[in-house]
Amino acid sequence: MGMPGVGKGTQAALLKDALNVPHVSTGDILREAVRAGSSLGRKVRGLLDSGQLVPDEMMGDLIVNRLGQSDARRGFVLDGFPRTQAQLGILDRVLNRLGGRLDVVFLLTAPEDEIVRRLSARRTCPQCASVFHLEGNPPRSPGVCDKCGSALVQRADDSEEVIRGRFQVYREQTLPIAHAYQERELLQEIDGIGEPQTVFERLGQAVELAS
User: Does the annotation count 97 as an active-site position?
Assistant: First the structure.
């Protein structure tokens, strides 16, 4: 868990490889639907572009389907879910149905201004979904994807105005979920500032303590 742009996806991918379990990112699932032009993609494109949350029932359907797949039986790393009180209840019911439980909930933290700086410099490839950063991971040729040669773009939800709006949504709807998991003694706060490997080392130590 954490504010948009704090590094959840990066750290979830590293955890996935370390634990050999799937990385379940609702954001990736939704963006893939948009790229594919599916009926789901058409419904959520406007929501994603404006930084709004996708309706809980839609997210619940995605999670039920994904966590029920065979590769998630040994475990999984959830990224971007739950983000509302209703989604917390949905996840509780799904885990109860599957006979699973959460071992630990990580809350990555960072100053808002730092996140705005990070996200404003992010560029993505609309064709192969590669992600670059103008400061930390620039493409070899400015504005061109290293992998497929397509023109890179700034996601609509990476503009500063939308980012600030997403922070407000996070504070109002998602931060209370962190408090709920804190009451269940599952929450661990992790400093999200630093190189990805440095942050991952902090996570790794916390995973060992939670095992």
Answer: no
